[in-house]
Amino acid sequence: PCRLFHGCNRLLTSQIISYYDSINQCKKELPEYFNFASNVLDEWSQLEKDGRRPANPAFWWVNDEGEEVKWSFEELGFLSRKAANILSEACGLQRGDRVIAVLPRVPEWWLLNIACMRTGIVFIPGTSQLTAKDILYRLQASKAKCIITNDTLAPAVESVMRDCQFLKSKLIVAKGSRDGWLNLKEL
């Protein structure tokens, strides 16, 4: 029996283990090229749509003020596909390109992480405590083509831009827009 957690059925450890056991016993196909977004997230979304799995939150985030974001597997899949399109189209990134995300752990951090998995873009996380010098070093060493940050850290990025020859696009996670930056929420 599933124990209720804030009104939602939780996936039991035994259910996860049985899934992996079925792979080990060759009852399920192992994909030649594994992609978490399509092989897990999209699969579980389809199971929910078909009624073969109870609806559970795929993502549940709560901040210090009690603000809550809760996405189903279907919503997380849909939003990560939109974010993947933004990275590919608006930012011009391709499989193998590197993106640095210097963000606190806001919902967009996880969304962009999954979008990168979906597209084959290399996601390089950075703590929001980085200084301009730290950001410059990471941009130069990684040869990242895109940086994603918030309005608090954007000035630090702008102060080192002239020394970042590989950087092609800047994406900001903010409510308002900023000159020279693409806005994730607006896109």
UniProtKB/TrEMBL annotation:
<dbReference type="GO" id="GO:0005524">
    <property type="term" value="F:ATP binding"/>
</dbReference>
<dbReference type="InterPro" id="IPR000873">
    <property type="entry name" value="AMP-dep_synth/lig_dom"/>
</dbReference>
<feature type="domain" description="AMP-dependent synthetase/ligase">
    <location>
        <begin position="52"/>
        <end position="175"/>
    </location>
</feature>
<keyword id="KW-0443">Lipid metabolism</keyword>
<protein>
    <recommendedName>
        <fullName>medium-chain acyl-CoA ligase</fullName>
        <ecNumber>6.2.1.2</ecNumber>
    </recommendedName>
</protein>
<dbReference type="GO" id="GO:0006637">
    <property type="term" value="P:acyl-CoA metabolic process"/>
</dbReference>
<keyword id="KW-0276">Fatty acid metabolism</keyword>
<comment type="similarity">
    <text>Belongs to the ATP-dependent AMP-binding enzyme family.</text>
</comment>
<dbReference type="InterPro" id="IPR051087">
    <property type="entry name" value="Mitochondrial_ACSM"/>
</dbReference>
<dbReference type="GO" id="GO:0006633">
    <property type="term" value="P:fatty acid biosynthetic process"/>
</dbReference>
<keyword id="KW-0436">Ligase</keyword>
<dbReference type="InterPro" id="IPR042099">
    <property type="entry name" value="ANL_N_sf"/>
</dbReference>
<dbReference type="Pfam" id="PF00501">
    <property type="entry name" value="AMP-binding"/>
</dbReference>
<dbReference type="GO" id="GO:0031956">
    <property type="term" value="F:medium-chain fatty acid-CoA ligase activity"/>
</dbReference>
<dbReference type="GO" id="GO:0004321">
    <property type="term" value="F:fatty-acyl-CoA synthase activity"/>
</dbReference>
<keyword id="KW-0067">ATP-binding</keyword>
<keyword id="KW-0547">Nucleotide-binding</keyword>
<dbReference type="GO" id="GO:0005759">
    <property type="term" value="C:mitochondrial matrix"/>
</dbReference>
